[in-house]
């Protein structure tokens, strides 16, 4: 039995660069057709921007994935991973409780 596919993506975190972030819903289910869940996602993106001192430049919500363009205001390589955790984890918890 083969292990599940894992993406092999290189991440670059150069100070002053915009970051294009893309992530999918669980098993690419069309969860983002739910207006309430979209609003939770938007709310936590705003909170992550504030807590990670980043600016949201652009975004697109698709039914099963999200595209974000953010600009960190400080050169910290952990900003992106903290940003994503601050968005994905709390939204996931809310959706599971709904």
List the helices and strands and how they pair.
Layout: E1 19-24, H1 35-51, E2 54-61, E3 65-72, H2 79-97
Antiparallel strand pairs: 1-3, 2-3
Helix pairs in contact: 1-2
SSE string: EHEEH
Question: What is the count of DSSP helices, taking H or I runs of 4+ residues?
Answer: 2
Helix content: 25-40%
Could you say which overall geometry the principal axes of the C-alpha atoms support? globular
Radius of gyration using CA atoms only: 14 Å
Strand order of the largest sheet: 1-3-2
Mean pLDDT: 90
The biggest sheet amounts to:
3 strands, antiparallel
Model regions low in confidence, pLDDT < 50 over at least 5 residues: none
Derived structural class? alpha+beta
| DSSP strand tally | 3
Strand content: 15-25%
Query: What gap, in angstroms, lies between the N and C termini?
Result: 35 Å
Tell me what the structure shows:
- The chain has helices at residues 35-51, 79-97, and strands at residues 19-24, 54-61, 65-72.
- The chain is globular and about 35 Å long.
- It has a domain at 16-70.
- It has 98 residues and is α+β, with helices and mostly antiparallel strands.
- It has 2 helices and 3 strands.
